[in-house]
Design brief:
This protein is mainly alpha-helical. The protein is built from five helices and no strands. Helix 2 runs antiparallel to helix 3 and helix 2 packs across helix 5. The N terminus is likely disordered.
């Protein structure tokens, strides 16, 4: 019986058309994730010590969350949601990766 209940729930997670109301929308997530990736790349490029990297990353993330008017808990909850819903995660990540690739190409 338990398995029968699991199958529909697993299937429904992968076929959602949009996130629930308490999750950041795809349009809201895209620029936030892009800025988070850029912040991570910046910190990595600078070769800070691990402690300094963590402090600087936290400051940059805080600025990003403020910029987009979200709380860190909203972002992390949304990331957890999207990571368990591949169809929606792909819709968020493909344009982000394309945009970051274009930025990288322009800087070379």
């Amino acid at each position: 019986m338990f398995i029968l209940f699991l199958l529909p729930s697993c299937n429904s997670h992968t076929t959602l058309k949009r996130p629930p109301k308490d999750i950041l929308s795809e349009d809201k997530m895209k620029p936030v994730i892009q800025d988070v990736f850029l912040a991570d790349a910046y910190v990595e490029e600078k070769h800070y010590t691990p402690d300094s990297s963590k402090i600087i990353t936290n400051r940059l993330y805080s600025k990003i969350f403020t910029k987009y008017g979200i709380k860190s808990a909203e972002f992390y909850k949304s990331m957890e949601f999207y990571s368990t819903h591949p169809n929606l995660f792909e819709e968020v990540m493909v344009p982000v990766v394309d945009s970051l690739s274009a930025v990288e190409a322009r800087t070379k």
